């Protein structure tokens, strides 16, 4: 069976790292396109202090794609005292290289070289952005605030016209398969596709767009699969296939036909990378 050779995965947080671990079991060429809108925790402190991109989700991708070096193993290690308390080693490395070079893509390529990454990690936008959610009654700004908001009817970036790196656009367009999710629908999944250049590149893609649906209600809502797909469609994102766990039950998601696949749950919210990789490997244009 032919499997996708070039795969581009979009998202953020732990969900994107989960997909990357699965994708590396079958893909020959991998690219992660990552939202850099986070404003919480170590990433938020770095953004406030240095004004650069949020490095946390970028770091998680290198942890998923890196080799067996000590640096890869310790990218997530956090300082426990002083002014650096709570900062992850990898966050500081990414932020420092980006600030010193003035070129985020070049800095990420260098981190990839240092950790022996099997794939490339790229930002969804060329410069830092903020998430803005419209609830119908008021606006909520910032990823942390958006994560806590209820009744969101629209999500956008600020500034709205921020460009994406040419490398990011090229990776999406050239992919044999584009993978979206799993993860927090608003703050990870949608956040990675809202940039105009990314949206246009998705419209020109040659490979199928596969949504890996959230498995657990513990992941930021909405939990209903139909709602997840509808909200993506409302923002111009139309998956060709949706990977779902049997826990969702039978049904449809509006205009999108569901490709059902057995995806194992490890701890109630994680996907088994081998089984998820096997399921994703079968999501090709020929099987649509």
How would you characterize this protein structure?
- The chain has 288 residues and is an alpha/beta fold.
- The two termini are 15 Å apart.
- It has 12 helices and 10 strands.
- It has helices at 13-23, 41-50, 56-65, 70-74, 89-101, 104-115, 143-148, 166-174, 185-189, 196-203, 225-234, 273-281, and strands spanning 6-11, 29-34, 120-123, 130-134, 139-141, 154-158, 177-180, 209-212, 241-244, 259-260.
- It has 2 domains: 1-35 and 124-288, CofD-like domains (Rossmann fold), CATH 3.40.50.10680; 38-120.
- The strands form 2 sheets. Strands 3-2-1-7-8-9-10 form a 7-stranded parallel sheet, with helices on both faces. Strands 5-4-6 form a 3-stranded antiparallel sheet.
- The radius of gyration is 18 Å and the shape is globular.
- Helices cover 38% and strands 15% of the residues.
- A hairpin with a 4-residue loop joins strand 4 and strand 5.
